[in-house]
Amino acid sequence: MMTSDRHLSFIGMTTIDVVQIADDLPEPNRKGWARHAYLDVGGPAANAAITASILGSPVSLHSAFGSGPLGDLVNGLIDRHAVRRFDYGDNPDVPVSSIWVSAASGDRTLLSTAAAFEGPHSVGVDLGDTAAVLLDGFYPGLARAAAETAAEQKIPVVLDCGTWRDVFFDLLPLASIAIVSEHFEFPDRTQATSEEIIARLLDEYQVRFAAISRGGDPIPWATRHDCGHLAVRQVAAVDTLGAGDVLHGAFMYFAFYLGLDDQAALHRAAEVAARSCEHFGTRAGVAAWAEEDSHA
């Protein structure tokens, strides 16, 4: 199995996540009690980058990290995972997400300031010796600049499309791979089936590989010559927060660091994402999988 000498680049959002696991949300004007809590960085690009780093790839994260005490906290949490930071922030603030995780199901409810955070505008992006780029669609100016640079240098672009953002009109034509969530819809076709969404990604936008993550349900995928459904290992979920981000980061690692083909990379990435749901927190399950794999 070959490994790349180059690093993986992740472009997009970094947040501060305040996460608590509890049996129930309190009624209005009442107090509630959590079983556990933690504070960590989050955001699709940041979580994916840290996942790839834990698995073993050299990683760069291009984002906005804030400044002052909150920025120091964000940078320290990222640096713990050996992720190289490229800061494009022109705002001292960092988006903050408050997350309640159900102790019974592992499902999460999230309230975030991310939608009100514009991020960097006009920027140039130096990707260096990059094997592949992942874009989460946040910070449109940064995303467009990175996608255009990647296209000029013939670097594969992977899109994490959680929900539709207008920047995807510009990013999809430059993408090699699109892994979208079950909540993704094209703005002009809001009732399309999974098969129709994948067909449009392949035919209209000419991606080479498309897939739709659906939690614990099988993942439909297709290339221009083949298609299928990837079974997902069923687990007793403790915490589903960040599982989709883990899937994307692990896919980048398996596809562009280890050099597996897209279908095999998705299969292995789904294993890591399922493992992450068995642990509280976004990192513990990934680290456990990496430890077990190193001794396999």
Q: Can you tell me about this structure?
A:
- With 296 residues, the protein is α/β, with parallel strands linked by helices.
- It has a single domain (7-294), classed as 3-Layer(aba) Sandwich (UDP-N-acetylmuramoyl-L-alanine:D-glutamate ligase), CATH 3.40.1190.20.
- Helix content is 31%, strand content 24%.
- The protein is built from 8 helices and 13 strands.
- The protein has helices at residues 44-55, 68-79, 140-152, 168-171, 194-203, 243-257, 262-277, 284-294; strands at residues 7-11, 15-22, 36-42, 59-63, 83-87, 96-102, 108-112, 130-135, 157-161, 177-181, 209-213, 219-222, 227-230.
- The strands form 2 sheets. A 9-stranded mixed beta sheet has the order 5-4-1-8-9-10-11-12-13, sandwiched between helices.
- Strand 12 and strand 13 form a beta hairpin.
